[in-house]
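[job 4471] stage=fold_predict status=RUNNING
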Amino acid sequence: MRYLRCIGPVVLSLGAALPWACSSTPECSYDIDCPGRMVCSAEGACVERPEDAGAPVDDIGENADSGGSADARPKDGGWDAGRDAGDAGGDAGADAGDAGRDAGDAGKDGGDSGDGGLDAGDAGKDGGDGGCGECGIAGERACDGTEAYRICEQSGNSCLTWGARIQCVDPDECRQGTCGHDACAENESKCEGNDAYRVCSKGNSPFLDWGDPVDCGPGEACGNTFCCPSEMAEAEGFCIDRYEAFASSSATCGLQGTAYGWNGDDYPLGFPDKVGDGGLPETEKVYSCAAQGVKPSAFITFFQAGQVCRNSGKHLCTAQEWYTACAGPGGLEYPYGDTYEAAACNTSSAAAVPTGSLAQCTSGFGAFDMSGNLYEWVFDDARALGFQPIAGGAYNSGDTSSCDKTYNVSTSTQSPARGWRCCKLPQD
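[job 4471] inference complete, writing structure tokens
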């Protein structure tokens, strides 16, 4: 049955002749064109919903089918789903997007007029996906492999999508959405002038770079990569006393202090042989001092040597640190070269001489007397309990005073030919 649209609230059938009051223009194209709960029929007229009018649902479906494939509407409420999805699409509801897609599929099955349902489904999808879902924040960056990245962009339909692939420039690579490269090795350090240094780290960046300058402490200077006290030389990642040490009651190593270990085992009673790590308390502090032209202290035990270094903010050198400082950058047999020279260091005499007396007896890192003069206590955690090594030879050890030569001795013993020197890490 064909309906006409008439002026006023009355809709007449084709058999009622009121040409002056009616028009063949369709009243509606979609349900949304109709007021209230009315729906748009296949003939383009707003009618009551079947459930509201009490008519069987199948009647509406049959009328829709009878209109032909070009004008048919989706059966089983397909247009309702499309309309509901379209309305909800603007609210960015995921459920509305799904319903819209279903309505679009049903509309295509019902004929060309099903495009209305498909459009509603697309609108529902756009709203439901909340920015299309490829990325979350405009301007966000993400690596596309290791050599390129993409930026999250907002398109004309308000979708957030990944933009074009942006290639990194060699030698850069992509990390966390940023192109770049490491400027240094992790924890590497370098001097910034002679009073500060920088350490290589990532900080807030995905790439390693030099950090802010770190000032040297009082009495320290930066030689090559980090700060060392003025009496110490910089080796590979640590500082080492330039000279064999002497023991003093003065924390500042001044002349007002009392020196120990020059003429025998004269350390104070409050500084026993097994002090500190040996298990006995220290009631009188003794400090480690290093200076040129001073006789080094001897008659000291392993435990005492470790304690004087700790009291001075340092530590007893490990066997590896000591060897590294002695052999120098070239890994030499002796501090001065690979061939023993009797006159280079104090290795063929009857007693120790003041520190730094022999200029040739200097390692590549600037440490003196590491061959001969006094054996030096070092620490090696691989040694048997109760024993630790002494290194470097003494005033009477001859060619056995090479950098790699050590002897195991009891930690609680002392000797007139045995001393020490201290080491220090940048973080100490």
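[job 4471] summary: The chain has a mean pLDDT of 80.
[job 4471] exit 0
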